[in-house]
Write a structure and sequence with these properties.
The protein is α+β, with helices and mostly antiparallel strands and about 270 residues long. The chain has helices at about 10-15, 25, 30-40, 100-110, 130-135, 190-200, 220-225, 245-260; strands at about 1-5, 45-50, 55-65, 70, 75-85, 115-125, 140-145, 150-155, 165, 180-185, 210-215, 230-235, 235-240. β5 (about 75-85), α4 (about 100-110) and β6 (about 115-125) form a beta-alpha-beta unit. Bound molecules: coenzyme A. Coenzyme A (COA) binds near residues 80, 81 and 99.
Length: about 270
Amino acid sequence: MKIINLTPEYEHLYFCCLEDWSDDIKEAGNHKELWYEKHKDKGIRVKLAINDEGVVGGMIQYLPVEHSFVIGTDLYLILCIWVHGHKKGCGNFQKKGMGTALLEAAENDVKELGSSGIVSWGIGLPFFMRASWFKKHGYEQVDKNSMIRLLWKPFSKKAIKPSLMKQLKSPEKIDGKVNISLFKNGWCPAFNMVYERTLRAVNGIEDNIIINTYDSAERNVLNEWGLSDALFLDNKQVRTGPPPSFKKIQKKIYRKVKKLKKVNIQ
Ligand SMILES: CC(C)(COP(=O)(O)OP(=O)(O)OC[C@H]1O[C@@H](n2cnc3c(N)ncnc32)[C@H](O)[C@@H]1OP(=O)(O)O)[C@@H](O)C(=O)NCCC(=O)NCCS
């Protein structure tokens, strides 16, 4: 197995998080590609793990924390690490050392770049980006918000602890309409899926809603709202991890519209 930097021939795999077989991922549109094109000059780094047969089984992406949704300076934030774990497509590559190799390669890269440390977000439960996996690799928890943990590994005594951005503002209720607010950063197909599914779900009921979309990869949006990827129906945030199905999102919106107007929606 070897770890390589992303090259143009593998970009299509990176944009779909190695899941070129997945119909769900297709629903995420091309937002990740657009995000990458727009922000790649901000220091985004991507590494891939390739097995001896030349199959890409894992990836890690990280960027200077200043360009991310985490508060910090002179650190790199791991947006995500993913070792393909599904039977479909290229198959299950987990528990073969790829994750560890990717993390170590990223850490060495960040050291060589002269940064004072590396940060990752993680979940306090045993799924997705498990905080416990990072702890096992020497990361220390520095912040927490509900299930989300922020963990870091400083490489210098001068390193300053990062923190999670706090929500600064909530959308408001609007008389006579359901107010839908969609925040999308672009780096994660799972969130991009929620974005696209929500846009599809409001087809045909435009008269009953107001929809505002926000590109949270733009600093001014993050600074104003303190939100990266999120969906709000009026002033209530909808849980979007793992991404709800199209049907589920549609049902939630229709329920709100029905309550509001008592209109007859199928
Ligand atoms: C967390 C993650 C990156 C780890 O990747 P991995 O390649 O499975 O990691 P490793 O193989 O290096 O280590 C995992 C385990 O396998 C064990 N292992 C490592 N090499 C091994 C080998 N050759 N044979 C058997 N076991 C091995 C390790 O001891 C480790 O044990 P643990 O489960 O008790 O921690 C991977 O599980 C993953 O992608 N999870 C999902 C993350 C996710 O959702 N990302 C997207 C977020 S947007």
